[in-house]
Amino acid sequence: MKITEVKVVVTCPGRNFVFVKVMTDEPGLYGVGEGTLNGSELIVAEAIRHISHLIIGHDPHRIEDIWQLLYRQGYWRGGAIFMAAIAAIDIALWDIKGKVANLPVYQLLGGKARDKVMCYTHASGRDEVECEDSARQIVERGFRAVRCQVGNYGAQGIVGILPPLSPGTPSTAIYEPTPYLVNAPKLFAHMRAQLGNEIELLHDAHEQLDPIAAARMAKEMEPYRLFFLEDPLMPEHRESWSLVRQASVTPLAIGEILTSRWDCLPLFMNKWIDYIRIKPIHGGGISEVKKILTLAEPFNVRSAMHGAADIGIIGQAASVAVQSVIPNFGIQEYTRHPELAYEVTPGACELREGHLYPNERPGLGIDLDEALAAKYPYQRAFMPLLRRADGTVHVY
Ligand code: CO
User: Residue 52, class by beta-carbon neighbours within 10 Å (0-12 exposed, 13-18 middle, 19+ buried)?
Assistant: First the structure.
């Protein structure tokens, strides 16, 4: 069998997604994959087009060989763009292998280690009472784990908004950490008091804190027994992770912007984290992320795969397949996709009572409707921008 073409489909059925269809010389046999990288979709699409020339004519069953070829061909290896591009192709090759074997991808990876994948989703509101209402609605839908934020991207610290510099670019939020640092623990005091101890609570600090503030946050959250505190610190601040770690017994999760085993391994070996947020579509695909979770296992690090709205239906299915089979599963982030996305990529994993179920159809069990995707062309979009009150550019 030979790969004959890699079709790249960038589409915006409610938001932008980057999908691929890897075509073969067997009539009707193809695999679907995804490499959506929020705010950088067209760059990934071009990277996929570029590297796909190297695998035309190759046997799609040789997944490991193709992964090594695509990873090592560039000399300038890795990074978010290339790893998302490799991921899209890798996921599609697993889809092909599943279709040929007439088995779902999770069977090819070793079979189910659990029946269903526990998810958390996002409660939010303008204040703690609205956030509590939002959390109660989520619990009524069957979820046992809820991420709680007042607003999003550090809304508790947003003190102003600057208009866009030019049309089609985002406005800039003015952010100060002190209001956020003071108010976030109060939110969790409220949530625990109102919701009791049966629900798991999570919080995402979105990398907005410096090391001492991150350590303080982890310590002040301790009484509220978080399932985890996510991204208290930018992963680049590696030398400061031990400070945050030693400040408390609040479980820590990072890794949604990490893209390789070399990024993840020091976090495991130093026992700085409890949950790793890497997932197939940004981590080189199913092949690489399955290996990374195996590296995590002896260090008691569990999976907590990033599942924000910018990870499409195919990417989500790849995450669910891996998390169905690994022993060290933790939790899966869940957000509902735009309604049109369910038509462009039909066959999404089923969500029931706060759990995702892997598809039982061959491969990933998802299709890509190219004609429909073409009706929703790419829309220019960027990530939110953040500055401090004195004008300094800030991360979020
Ligand atoms: Co996050």
Answer: buried
